[in-house]
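Dear Dr. K.,

Following up on our conversation at the group meeting, I've run the structure prediction for TonB-dependent receptor from Kushneria pakistanensis. I'm pasting the input sequence below exactly as I used it, so you can double-check it against your construct before we proceed with anything downstream. Let me know if the numbering doesn't match what you have in your notebook.
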Amino acid sequence: MTTRRTLLLALAGAMTAGTAHGEEIETVDAVDNTDAVETMVISAPRLARELYDTPAAVSTVERESIRRGQQRVRLDESLGQVPGVFIQNRDNFAQGQRIAIRGFGARAPFGVRGITILMDGIPYTLPDGQAQIDAIDLDSAESIEVIRGPSSVLYGNAAGGVISVTTADGRNNPGTRLRVEGGSDDYRKASLQTGGANGDWSHHVSLSALNQNGYRDHSSVEKYLLNAKLRRELDEDRALTAIVNLLDNPRSEDPGGLTREQVGEKRHQAGAFTKEYDTGQSVDQQVVGLQYEDLAAGPGELYVKGFYSWRHFEQQLPYPGDSLLGYDRDFFGASAEYHQTLSLGDMPLRYVAGVDAAHQRDDRWRRNVAFSGNVTGKVEDETQSATSTGVFVQGDLDLDDQWTASLGARYDRVRLKINDDLTTEGDNSGDREFNEWSGSAGLSYRYLPDHQAYVNTGTSFETPTFSEFANPAGGGGFNSSVEPQKAWNREIGLRGHFNNGLNYDVALFSVRVRDELVPYSLEGDNDRTFYQNAGDTNRDGLEVALGWQIDETWRLDSALTLAHYRFDSFDADGERHDSNRIPGLPEQTWVNWLTWEGQDQRFATLETQYIGDMVADNANDVDVDSYWLINLRAGEGWRLGNDTNLNVYAGIRNLFDREHFANTRINASNDRYFEPAPGRTFYAGLEVGF
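The predicted structure tokens came back this morning:
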């Protein structure tokens, strides 16, 4: 471990001595050309647009909201103000946060499914559809864009929603910041960011170290992260950016799930076999990327990106049997996009055309663990490989000053293959191939300079991941009965802002999913999860985001989701679950931030969270109660010199010590559905900038 941490520091020093196109804020002329309006330009939909010309539900979280008084450890800190997004499992680092956007991703027992994750344009979602977010660096994040709804036409497989994180490259907010934090449950974190520009060169380096014992028994974590960018302006129109992301996570303990009775006895206890088998995981990951942009490539703009990632992973599950597993993964790929603006008659047409390609190779193994804890031998030894290629085109046609029509199409080929290297129980090698078309269409009406109405429709697909292809009959290979799920999304929306400081974003959505993938466990298989297609599901809802700058010192932000997530038809081994709720999803959430801002970085934010009730199983027999949480954070800042600032801040989570669950395990075996959340917790930090 010492060698890897030394490498992190050495790379940071090298980068200091020595981007993907993201969010920009710029001033443009209003539709009637009478007033100048500050307009946000977004790029997660690949075709960069002004927000009020985008016919889709897109939310952007900016740098100040990500950083101000936050720990910057978990995505839920920043995305709580985005409607339609629900995040669980903030306290179990071995399982990882479970993210759902309009219900996509809810089925995952760990990690992320059904959602495309990007950081600086590099995909963290694999060709088979799974993603990990443990290497996302919120300390250096400049913006987070969220597409709330199926987006396969943009990113292919597993794009029920998109989360795109853009980190600093040193051109904006140069300088150095050192931050230290401490808090409840032995929480400790230190971070260092430094960046700047010198002529044609710019750089930004972020280092962080996290240690925490955790609220529950056997839930400690140790994690080190480096994220660095080095950018070179080749001339006025061309630039080259190098990206390095390194993760060293030598320990993330897994306290496991509890029954309701165990929760009542002692909330912070660990589950069965967790301590005996030392359940948890370790991760070592390195990502490098190289990106080239040419803003004068003929009549348009060219963006070319390439990346390589290596990941070593080991995990011990909490049961005797085939519970010790691991893999070494190589993941690499490239993409090219060409953007151009031209005229169709007297109507401006903007389009992007491109190609994506990626390859994933996992050398996987699984071993038996005896009841005594001794490792007794291999039960799986196989090579899993997935290759995805996609070609896409998307265009916006301005019909006049107010109306814009959008069309997009994409073709994807995804091939999954398993080579079984352990043939004592027969050869379980095999392959599956999927060829999928996706399309989208939208219409935007800018009925006032700062107000927009839109409608859109689009399709998406989601192949099962390798882990979801697991064969319940035993051994490796594919479960031939599992097929991809496909979705059709429709939405209408309104967004805008008024001169009195009030802004709004309202979306009505309706999603129909065929062959919904749902997890289940077999009796006697403990925590081993398998998957089946659950027929059809319906997801309908209303998303509302409001912001009101009341005066110079007070601001109110609110995000409300009212949804209806139901099985339309689902026959599980002869038992009908038609019209049942989809497990693991609340149908009402409401988050509010009331912020007071004073002078010299002085602030205070009161946050309220309402999470509606849920069910934990397909039969809807296990209920999970709704709850309210109140969080509070505040800070003060001082200028110590011309270039030196000191900031201190503190936060209280779950101010009124409300008992609730950090995670609900869907269709869990042995009734172990629940992972209790901490009660009232505190944290405080100090940051020096110069």
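Two things stood out to me. Residues 1-37 have pLDDT under 50 and may be disordered. The chain has five helices and 42 strands.

Best regards,
J.T.
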